[in-house]
Amino acid sequence: MDPDEIIRLRRDFHRHAEPAFLEIRTSSIVVARLRGLGIEVRRGAEAMRTDGVARYPDAATRERMRGRAVESGADPDLAACAAGEGTAVIAEIAGDRPGPTWGVRCDMDALPLTEATDEDHRPTALGFACQDGFMHACGHDGHTAIGIALAARLSDHDFPGRVRILFQPAEEGGRGAAAMIAAGAADGIDRFVAVHLGLGLPSGLVAGGCEGLLATHKLRAVYRGEAAHASGTPERGRNALVGAASALLNVMALPRYAAADTRLNVGTLHGGDNVNIVPSYAEMTLEARSTDADICDALTARVEGVLRGAAAMHDLTVEIERTGGSTTMTCDRQLVDAIAAIAAEKYGDGRAVALRPLGGSDDASLFAREVQGAGGLATYMLVGGGNRAPHHHPSFDIDEASIPVAVDVLEALLRGTPNGRTQ
Amino acid sequence: MDPDEIIRLRRDFHRHAEPAFLEIRTSSIVVARLRGLGIEVRRGAEAMRTDGVARYPDAATRERMRGRAVESGADPDLAACAAGEGTAVIAEIAGDRPGPTWGVRCDMDALPLTEATDEDHRPTALGFACQDGFMHACGHDGHTAIGIALAARLSDHDFPGRVRILFQPAEEGGRGAAAMIAAGAADGIDRFVAVHLGLGLPSGLVAGGCEGLLATHKLRAVYRGEAAHASGTPERGRNALVGAASALLNVMALPRYAAADTRLNVGTLHGGDNVNIVPSYAEMTLEARSTDADICDALTARVEGVLRGAAAMHDLTVEIERTGGSTTMTCDRQLVDAIAAIAAEKYGDGRAVALRPLGGSDDASLFAREVQGAGGLATYMLVGGGNRAPHHHPSFDIDEASIPVAVDVLEALLRGTPNGRTQ
Amino acid sequence: MDPDEIIRLRRDFHRHAEPAFLEIRTSSIVVARLRGLGIEVRRGAEAMRTDGVARYPDAATRERMRGRAVESGADPDLAACAAGEGTAVIAEIAGDRPGPTWGVRCDMDALPLTEATDEDHRPTALGFACQDGFMHACGHDGHTAIGIALAARLSDHDFPGRVRILFQPAEEGGRGAAAMIAAGAADGIDRFVAVHLGLGLPSGLVAGGCEGLLATHKLRAVYRGEAAHASGTPERGRNALVGAASALLNVMALPRYAAADTRLNVGTLHGGDNVNIVPSYAEMTLEARSTDADICDALTARVEGVLRGAAAMHDLTVEIERTGGSTTMTCDRQLVDAIAAIAAEKYGDGRAVALRPLGGSDDASLFAREVQGAGGLATYMLVGGGNRAPHHHPSFDIDEASIPVAVDVLEALLRGTPNGRTQ
Amino acid sequence: MDPDEIIRLRRDFHRHAEPAFLEIRTSSIVVARLRGLGIEVRRGAEAMRTDGVARYPDAATRERMRGRAVESGADPDLAACAAGEGTAVIAEIAGDRPGPTWGVRCDMDALPLTEATDEDHRPTALGFACQDGFMHACGHDGHTAIGIALAARLSDHDFPGRVRILFQPAEEGGRGAAAMIAAGAADGIDRFVAVHLGLGLPSGLVAGGCEGLLATHKLRAVYRGEAAHASGTPERGRNALVGAASALLNVMALPRYAAADTRLNVGTLHGGDNVNIVPSYAEMTLEARSTDADICDALTARVEGVLRGAAAMHDLTVEIERTGGSTTMTCDRQLVDAIAAIAAEKYGDGRAVALRPLGGSDDASLFAREVQGAGGLATYMLVGGGNRAPHHHPSFDIDEASIPVAVDVLEALLRGTPNGRTQ
Questions:
Q1: I need a surface site. Which of A325, B91, C184, D281 has the fewest CB within 10 A?
Q2: How many domains does chain A have?
Q3: CATH number for position A380
Q4: Quick one: CA dihedral B294, B295, B300, B306, positive or negative?
Q5: CB pairs under 8 A between B and C
Q6: Can you tell me the distance from the alpha carbon of A148 to that of B215, in angstroms, rounded to the nearest whole number?
Q7: Given CB atoms, is B313 within the 8 Å cutoff of chain D?
């Protein structure tokens, strides 16, 4: 698959961005493409378990997104399966000679963010911006395209061992990897590589691994009080929004940690009924992170203490749910160096580095924990995309020339060619 | 129109509750009924002005509600007019002898509140609860039925002067009366009566007027900051939700006033994009009230100061809009006594009182201001509904036997019969 | 005692203002004056019980204030008794003929407030402002002078019954009346009058009683967390100031009540150790009030709920103490009218009113509850002082001409003269 | 000076702890000891500039602390000079042969913290805890003892170059170093060493330098509103405590930074007048820190924005003052290695390390900036004290055996002996 086609694929995914667990069109196109290449595919219930997933989209939402997917070109049968059983896809390709089993993680989900509409934003200028309140503001459109391109390249079977490409839903929010692992997606993987574009690195720079991936817990808290007429009987109300607003401020006001980096974010808050009703309901989503998994746990416990104390202040009930998460990850040097060596060979030393710090979280870490726990190796490879706006920003965009670079390096790594042999 | 039919009408409106400016089905049925009685009707642009209305529902919302209205029995043409031009309806009936022009205000809108689903809630038990997230939790379903029944009774023209029944949209939030006044709905009225059911009074008790109606301003504030990846670059974000939460707490923490009763409520707050994005957006609706109109103005100015200061704290922008409101109202003793006398005559002294305190706001006060300003008289008549749950509560309900009482008293008042003559 | 001397007394008390339970100099001068008139005096332990008083000043503070009192002219022995046993003073004078026992309450304490220093402030301009961080910003300096003047007038015993003048400490904060009642100060009183100057009324206007006195609870809350180096190990701290600040905002954000007037105030907050230490300690004083005693109790319970919830949010401990309070009071019409009649007779109808609304609290209400509970009568008499700045404001001052008015009216009331007879 | 005497000195300083710029007794004893050794001393105005120091203690406070110093053994004349001109002391000793000029910084101030009183706290058990609400909870008592012991050792002049020992006031809060630099204390220094005990390192471990010293700004904010009677006219108040509490929460809720470590602390808050007065005044001290000096500046600007916005919310005035601060510091490898080599030689490799991370701030960084800016070298040497409780905690204590270790290593460094030669 040539670079132009890879980029066309990416733009198509970008234009039809779909959020977590609703990657119905994306998933359908992935399956269709892989089948077109003659590749064995596991999908739906064979690729992920939806039971036990917190906040899994309800049937009505999936049905609505299924309709949108079919309207914009998805195969109806594939879309129905993805909507009904799950959007994960696993492509497994056998090499023509012995070798290890590789796992390559490509995530597919977008964010519920309204994309920038100014002409300085290239997807808008070129007409492939998403117009539905979702946005690929983290590069996963590129990752999905990379996964398909890599499958196309390796469909000649000219490589040692086996390659399993993991098209993962719901990386944002940290729920998709666990759902795939529950379906056995990590079983038997000896070498695991996640790939990520962007990250503020110069376009085309390749890092063999990353440092500082943060463990995270995602939470949802629902406050319930008592509605009342805001003028006639305000004292009969129990104000859920006052409690939630206090929780928000006090969560953000928890201490910085000296022992590790931490992050806190209350990402959304929705509450209240009408301007003249004492608010009886409020719901927030929030997250804690740390470069130390134990500190992430401890910080999350403090967050939950704040959430409960805020409810007690105003005689509210609060339900707290841990909706997702991921852990820290230490990249194995053998894989890091192998990738850096390939990049140096292909593009020169100036384009290759070993480890780069990464200030985010990724539930690829859960795949890595499985693989490393079973004695395997794992890394998290970065390919710079020259993005000026940060990830998760309405103006986020990457230099598309970086996408084929990722495909080329991964192909070399998996083929075990002289300039990238890892065994 | 007999009591059973009045109650059937009320239950029908209840089941198909519609919020402010979206009373499309209600309006259509009102018009159809009035026409069936041979009564002259002004509707749409003849009954209200939609330009200049803050937060008027957008076309898509009106279209969706129009569809719902037609599906549940509204006449398609009437619904199209109501959706396109406005939902207000004015019925004008001429008496067969000289006399003053009366205006009777009946409001039609429901609240965006989810109705109680337990069997103790009579509309649920009897199967006429609304199931769409709207609820007649303030008795306007009864008011609309009263207006129709009154028109039916007076369609014999056997009364002095003229009667204009004002079927008003959007009393909640305080926008509908002003929109009707802008279309001339108050012009020429000599005697104005608003009617309200419920209010915690014993069922069937009639009060000739009320005291303590609060002036109010309704506000909408929109905070905008800057989105950013909550882990990778949190410092690049400007957090709209932290600003809005601070505004909420500090508005509620403004001082009580010794010089007059005041109320404050932040009714709704919605903000943020996703759990892992620094929130770039938050929107709240809020209100200030007071039994003194000047203090309501002063308090609202302080609220706006808090809203702006909270934006300044976090380098946010804030747009503040006054979306509606109403003023105080002093009921004229002549009308108060006339109504009380009718009720005493009909039901005995134990069922009739002059003035009752009322802890709410109503933009009927704007009609009253117009009428009284032109030398006319006005009152705000109450009919107890024995409600146990307060207004705006998911379990609000009234004793339906109170509805025909309101019709009977108004009929007597307007006919100028011996037991209720006001001239 | 002539008006000039009354005013000299008032200015002396003003210049040497003393706060709650530390009215050592004031008390000593009261006792010395009364003794000079040959009046029987109960003081110290005979006039009040200090055990059970919340937040009674510690010995070091009383010792320091005792020294200040002696330095500024107090009799050393009297000051020692007041510092050691309590500052309350009770003067009891027997009339020469039968009659009821009257109680007249005169409070003596000042506020911990820094007095205005501009020349527009009359005490400053005339050189009798207090310069020690205390201030008679509520008129109690005048009340104490009234009590002495009244005793001087009645030392001729030419009146029926008995008169007990209650020189009360610690009216601010609501602790002094209860301490005196515990020592029997209210026993046997048939008619109770409290007197208050100022209150925004025109100078010299006399009101026979007041309406709307608010019940109140005064609270003290102490938060304790854990100190830590703010940079080296901030996560080991538990931040008492973050908890206290949240409590403050959330107390103030409790709902307004429709059923009665309410007030909330967090009057003081002190916390933290040093700029670079996570705060381990915070202390606040606060109050709730209402025109309905039950609602005052309910509101106070909500305040305590907020205080505890805020502690829970940040894993703090909180000690909550109710340090004082008072209740509502209904003035008996017989006394109200008697006072109004005296004033009308003396100064004309324009200077006399029956009841005036009063937006404050006073633990004179506890005396009244005792007296009325035993079948007696009580009122709370107001004498306007023409104050422009409100009570408790650094620029508060009253027209001194109003002070002799209060003495004259009380004298007439107690003597039962024709123009003021109550029996 | 032998170890026992060094420890006796430390305990004496500990028992008589004095906070920033009030190290009057400490300073007097330092001068007396140095003079006893025949060493030339600069003190008072020769050692520091007090003009331009923010929040310099007022004359009354200095006078009170001077009295306490004299009562507890300070020479009256020396104490008078320290109280009047400043507490800094500079000892300068010339070596008997050519060489560089060394500066050694020993800070002297304690914290306003109440020391633990339980017997597990060794200063309490041994009877040298401070009982006056101040506490050496950061080891400066040991630093001062080290400075005196070092001067005693070097009073034989058997070393190359010159040694200037800088006894600095007010390290806590970051004001003392700048005041000394303003008096020329850093002029001509070629090699600068600051020494710090404790820091959670094993007792006796020596680190040649530190990494991660944070830049910091210390701030003081004063809010002023309008007092009012909390019940009678609360609406006339402008509540300074509500503003300050909001500022506190919102400062703490500012974002974590991904680009550098940051810290925020509101260390103290004091406000309000009395429980029944709307608070007209509030004062807070706070600090921002970062491992990046530019980010510290940017974060401080955001803090100031929050402080101003909070004032705007409630129509308050706010005065913001930057009261102190320090910067980051990079230790020069030549000095780091020299110290580590001495420690390894003396105590074995297990007791010597090069660089250790340090999670705090120290205005020794300002001396370092001066020295390095003029081409010299600087380091910040750590000597572990085995402290279990963190710095600034009421139970902080260090193993006293570590104090002579610091003296020995510094002596070797300055003498340039074979095992520690740096030239």
A1: C184
A2: 2
A3: 3.40.630.10
A4: positive
A5: 25
A6: 64
A7: yes
